Amino acid sequence: MAELDEEVKNVLMAEDDNEDFEIFAEAVRELSLQILLTRAENGEVLMKILHERLPDMLFLDILMPCKNGKDCLLEIRENRKFDDLPIIVYSGLRDFETVEFCFRKGTNMFVYKPHSFSELIDIVQKIFAINWSKVKYYPRRADFVLNPL
């Protein structure tokens, strides 16, 4: 089991798909991670939540209604208030252009949505094993995409 960095307590997930969010939440529960996982159902809700309270970490889907993940990413990284916010893109998109955009615009990691629950468990465990509060993690290009297993 992964040990959660004790300072990471509030995790925000921008995800419009109910099933994807519930499966991710189940993986967090399965690993007994002591975090409060909050959901923003679309990009507009995400930006409202971020301006009300700053989470310890953000999981960002790219394909969302109202305001997509790319637009949110640009807005977040233009605001110095969010400079220390770790952003992990969690997306079903696997095209080079999307990954490159996210790398250039300041996300900390790109994760492909896995095809199985066991792959998701592995991914969640790896992400939460990183001490995000103490590491300014701007990855080398070779380490940017986290592939399952």
Structure description:
The chain is an alpha/beta fold. The protein has a single domain, classed as 3-Layer(aba) Sandwich (Rossmann fold), CATH 3.40.50.2300. Helix content is 36%, strand content 17%. It has helices at 18-30, 43-52, 69-77, 96-104, 117-129, and strands at 10-14, 36-40, 57-60, 87-91, 109-112, 145-146. It has a six-stranded parallel beta sheet with strand order 2-1-3-4-5-6. α3 (69-77) links the parallel β3 (57-60) and β4. The chain is globular and about 35 Å long. Mean pLDDT is 87; it is low at 1-5.
Attribute tags:
149 residues; alpha/beta; Rossmann fold; 5 helices
Percent helix range:
25-40%
Q: Report the biggest beta sheet as strand number plus sense, adding barrel if it closes.
A: 6 strands, parallel
Low-confidence stretches: 1-5
- CATH topology, by name, is Rossmann fold
Number of domains: 1
Distance between the termini: 15 Å
CATH architecture descriptor name: 3-Layer(aba) Sandwich
- Count of DSSP H/I helices: 5
Residue fraction in strands? 15-25%
The tally of beta strands, per DSSP, is 6
**Radius of gyration, CA atoms, in whole angstroms:** 14 Å
How would you classify the helix and strand content by structural class? alpha/beta
- How would you spell out the order of helices and strands? EHEHEHEHEHE
CATH superfamily: Response regulator
Shape: globular
Name the CATH class. Answer: Alpha Beta
> Whole-number average pLDDT?
87
Task: Please give the order of strands in the largest beta sheet.
Answer: 2-1-3-4-5-6
